[in-house]
Specification:
The protein is 25% helix and 36% strand. It has eleven helices and 24 strands. The strands form three sheets. Strands 5, 6, 8, 9, 11, 12, 14, 16, 17, 19, 21 and 23 form a twelve-stranded mixed beta sheet that branches. Strands 4-3-7-10-13-15-18-20-22-24 form a ten-stranded mixed beta sheet. A two-stranded antiparallel sheet has the order 1-2. The chain folds into two domains: 22-297, no CATH class; 411-464, no CATH class. With 464 residues, the chain is of the alpha/beta class. The longest helix has 19 residues, at 445-463.
Length: 464
């Protein structure tokens, strides 16, 4: 990995001493895949799946569009690192250095105050899990993916890799070969999970790859809100995060998936996220991308059933040496489906944001409605914002709207706020917060407060 320059105050940039009880050698070979599978004591079907994905990965080429990925060296990465033995069900049972790490990012407090269930992943493995007994009684399953493969193989086999097949893209193939950890959520028919489930993903080691795999199934008439938070320390060598998320929203079910990502700038964040919504189902992605040196992420909804609805609300913030190439995909396969995309991006200190989106309406899909709004805010002359929308409309019975706007902070607004006694620094922060408000208001209160705090920190470093 190439060296990165990090020059800003990153709250979660602390690092703990690397801890491992199992660790593969740096580099990627078929033996690496076997070693990972052996370490997990996996069944033969998953080992075969991994090796098939690895064979697919070797044949694939790196993307030549989007962000610059030339700094990635697949042979300079550690693909598996286990920091503790087994999962702890009680916080006090974790090794002290892991507890110290998650204490600093508030896992216990978040669980006590807000959450129905918590899963915490450290390096390659989930190290702590907790789920309220009431949910267990209702049949809700919430565990790490490694546990799901062993305890719920019939469900996993039915869905695993069906939305995002091995050959979908280079990093999906890589994930299929070396995945570890991630979340498994199964919500039975007509069960409403009233409080959010949350997962924390932490990369602590240098030159490490984290490849979690998340699978969410919401049966007919059910609902669930899943939140993920991501952090990593600052190193001079880059790390790779290449996750895969598959979500199945059955008839009249509803899933909301919220990401508050604050990776440090030495992370390549290359994620494939996709959902399938059946008749009357609702799928909502809320995607907040602040950190990482490079992000390429385009949450997708396949609207497969009549009356299904999809929504993506996203924020991307790019500062110096950052490129946030993010967006969304809406694929209308059925009639009476609707979708909405709202993208808010902010660039400063020469940072670059890109909206890359797709709206596809299949032949025969009638009475389809889709709205796309891309708003970009540039804070200086050296920053950049791009929009790459793709519209494939194969039906005449569709209403498609697309709006894109690029603006700077208004001097008139700054003058007005200054006349009311507000300092310039605070006024600029207020205007940025107002710019992203349509997305922030959809995030639970304590997470929206943290998001605003992180953005204000970036603003003060940029123009304070």
């Amino acid at each position: 990995m190439k060296q990165e320059t990090v020059d800003f105050d990153y709250k979660y940039g602390f690092s703990m001493p690397e801890r491992s009880i199992k660790k593969t050698k740096r580099g990627l070979t078929a033996q690496t895949i076997r070693d990972i599978s052996d370490a997990k004591d996996e069944s033969e079907w998953m080992r075969a799946s991994r090796l098939k994905s690895y064979a697919t990965f070797k044949k694939m080429k790196m993307p030549t569009w989007g962000a610059d990925l030339s700094g990635i060296d697949f042979q300079d990465i550690t693909y598996y690192l286990k920091a503790s033995e087994g999962n702890a069900n009680a916080w006090e049972d974790l090794p002290q250095e892991i507890k110290d790490t998650y204490d600093k990012i508030g896992v216990p407090e978040a669980e006590k105050k807000f959450l129905a269930g918590v899963s915490a992943q450290y390096e390659s493995e989930v190290v702590y899990e907790s789920i309220q007994k009431e949910l267990t009684k209702k049949g809700v399953l919430f565990c790490d993916m490694d546990t799901a493969v062993k305890k719920h193989p019939d469900i996993v086999k039915k869905y695993f890799g069906t939305l995002i097949p091995q050959g979908d893209n280079t990093f999906a193939a890589l994930n299929g070969a070396v995945w570890s950890g991630g979340s498994f959520v199964y919500v039975p028919k007509n069960v409403e999970v009233k409080l959010p489930l949350q997962a924390y993903f932490r990369i602590n080691a240098e030159r490490f790859g984290q490849f979690e795999r998340t699978l969410i199934i919401a049966e007919e008439g059910s609902s669930v809100h899943y939140i993920e938070g991501c952090t990593a320390p600052i190193y001079t060598k880059s790390s790779l995060h290449a996750a895969v998320v598959e979500i199945f929203v059955h008839k009249n079910a509803r899933v909301r998936y919220t990401t508050v990502q604050n990776w440090s700038k030495n992370i390549y964040n290359l994620v494939t996220k996709r959902a399938r919504a059946e008749e009357g189902a609702i799928m909502e992605w809320i995607d907040c991308n602040i950190g990482s040196g490079v992000t390429m992420k385009y949450p997708a909804v396949y609207l497969a059933g009549r009356g299904a609805r999809g929504e993506v609300l996203s924020i991307a913030f790019a500062g110096k040496n950052q490129h946030q190439d993010a967006g969304a995909k809406m694929v209308h396969l059925a009639s009476d489906t609707s979708s909405r995309i709202i993208s808010k991006s902010i660039s400063k200190d020469g940072g670059r944001t890109s909206y890359r989106g797709l709206v596809h309406v299949a032949p025969g899909a009638k009475r389809v409605a889709s709205s796309v709004v891309c708003d970009a805010l540039l804070l200086d002359q050296g920053s950049r914002s791009d929009t790459y929308p793709t519209m494939r409309i194969r039906s005449k019975d569709a209403r498609i709207e697309h709006e894109a706007r690029v603006e700077k902070i208004s001097e008139d607004k700054l003058f007005y706020l200054a006349s009311r006694g507000i300092k310039k620094e605070d006024a600029e922060g207020l205007l940025v917060n107002g710019f992203i408000e349509p997305v922030v208001r959809e995030i639970p209160l304590e997470y929206s407060i943290e998001l605003n705090r992180l953005l204000n920190l970036e603003m003060r470093n940029a123009i304070g």
